[in-house]
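Researcher: Go.
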Amino acid sequence: MAQTKIWPVTDHLARCVRYIMDPDKTQGGKLVSGVNLLIAPNDWLGTTNQMNATKRRFNKPGGRLAYHMEQSFRAGEVTPELAHKIGVELAQELFGDKYEVVVATHVDTGHVHNHILLNSVSFVDGVKFHKPKSYYENHIRKVSDQLCEKYGLSIIKEPSQEKYQSYPAQHHTEPQSSPTVHSFIYEDIDKAVAAARDLDDFYRILTEMGYRVKREGKHPAIAPEGHRFFRLYKFKAGYAEEDIKKRIEEKTHSNFRVYGAWSNKREFHFYQVRFTRYFARRLTMRSLRATYLHYRYLLRSVRKESYPRYPSIGLRKEVAKLNRYSAQARLLVREKIDTKEDLQSFQKALDEKIHALNKRKWYLKRQLETAIDAEREAVKEKIEELENEVRPLYRERFLCKDIAQRSGVVDEKVQREKVAAQERLAQERSDFPWTQRQKP
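Model: Structure:
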């Protein structure tokens, strides 16, 4: 049984060649071969120079430098020599007519596996290798399975249905702890879908929200202000163009409007009045809480503008930062934390509580392994209750660490401002001595 995967190499070609030709991994270089390349024993530099010479000949030195493919075999099923023979035949069948390939078999781990490095530029006509993902599924894997059957090895009858997922699909399937560019884009797409009558109207709304839209190519793409284009087909499920079109058709009715950072102008006025009056009265306080309340008051200014235009992602990141400061201020007020000693004491008590809850959860998980069916559900419910109880405590611990870090920075800035003010005052008195009051 052989598993295969392939990925592009965009930098450090020499490092990649040196790695796959490592004599410690290839029985002193015996399990290294070249297809359309002259391979000298342990001469990774010469192999790299041959590939680079092909790139220079066709003036294509940049971009994707190579493609790295790995072919792994089941432990104990194949000898190193047979695995290497299969790797060479696979490279010859797939790329031997136009491309330079290095094939190396590694035997330093628990299972034998081949590394196949393909020069991205053809030595025949200079065309760069580029195949869609379907080429891997329908051709590379198919040829690999045929070679395994030829030499009496097992193959995977039912390959995993999970295909390669893009970065957004991998990391944004659930809400993230901190906002990202993709999370803001998904939020904007949701708002535009809710307001759009059809797909054209959807793109028009995105344009009004500050996005650039490109629809003329094979794959539609959008670009938020200050960022590059993102192709919709690479987004997670529900946010590709076909999914968006389906969502627009299925929705029945929506009166949603885009107002920027608030749902409506009334909410904007509420925030303006509240944070101008409420927090301004508390600026006379002199404690750690006062510092954060002051920050919260000042940073609310980013929301005091009534947006005729949809706010940029950069601005909304600042609002997210502001919300974190607001949560810190609420924590300080609720727990009556006025000094650093109070903060350290609260952190210590918080850590002890988190440790106790995690310890109880650990014992329940051990109990779950031996519990019978009738007891498993009850144990699972207890574990879920503990997880729900400890989750906000983790958030509070993060807020405390951020407060401790930032309060030191704030203190330093305050001290610098005090010293600067005293120096300015002394300078003014020396320049204008008559302004000083005479003692009676």
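Model: The mean pLDDT is 78.
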